[in-house]
Write a structure and sequence with these properties.
Blueprint: E1 8-13, E2 19-24, H1 33-50, H2 79-82, H3 87-90, H4 92-120, H5 127-152
Antiparallel strand pairs: 1-2
Length: 159
């Protein structure tokens, strides 16, 4: 049984029988081949310790692995994006621009609301409404500027 907070899991057969099951709360925790080779070595040593008469595998590679999501469609068109199933790698530009779009939409809605309030009420606008508009405007401007900051940064590939 894998815990509820497990984001990624990996199983390796033990020499002599049984499986070594490893899980992590981090998504894509076992994506690097060095991590998978280390886990294969741990499984071989554990199998040898549990079953001394069992044969150790000659190749501790990752050939006995089974991918549990081979049919997941890969979106995007470039070869770099096809190498990764990470949505942040595939949709980095869209994710980085989303705060700017949300902030710009919020500022425009607030402007339309303010113009309608000024035209419909000849006595003036309530001070509470003015304070709420000020706070909402600051939050929307912060979102917009955060989106522009995220667009100006260029992330590096992890490997």
């Amino acid at each position: 049984v894998v815990p509820r907070d497990a984001e990624s899991a990996l199983t390796k057969p033990l020499p002599g029988g049984g499986l070594l099951v490893m899980w992590s709360a981090l998504p894509r925790a076992f994506d690097r081949s060095a991590d998978r080779l280390w886990i294969a070595g741990v499984a071989a040593k554990l199998g040898a310790a549990l079953y001394p008469d069992a044969q150790l595998p000659q190749n501790l590679g990752v050939n006995s692995e089974q991918c549990f999501e081979p049919d997941v469609p890969l979106l995007g068109g470039s070869d770099d994006e096809l190498a990764s199933r990470d949505p942040f790698a595939r949709f980095g530009q869209q994710i980085r621009i989303s705060p700017g779009i949300v902030g710009l939409v919020a500022l425009s809605i607030q402007t339309v609301n303010r113009v309608n309030l000024m035209n419909s009420n000849p006595l003036g606008i309530d001070p509470g409404q003015s304070r709420a508009d000020l706070v909402a405007g600051c939050l929307a401007a912060t979102l917009f500027l955060q989106g522009m900051l995220w667009l100006s940064e260029t992330p590096y590939d992890p490997e």
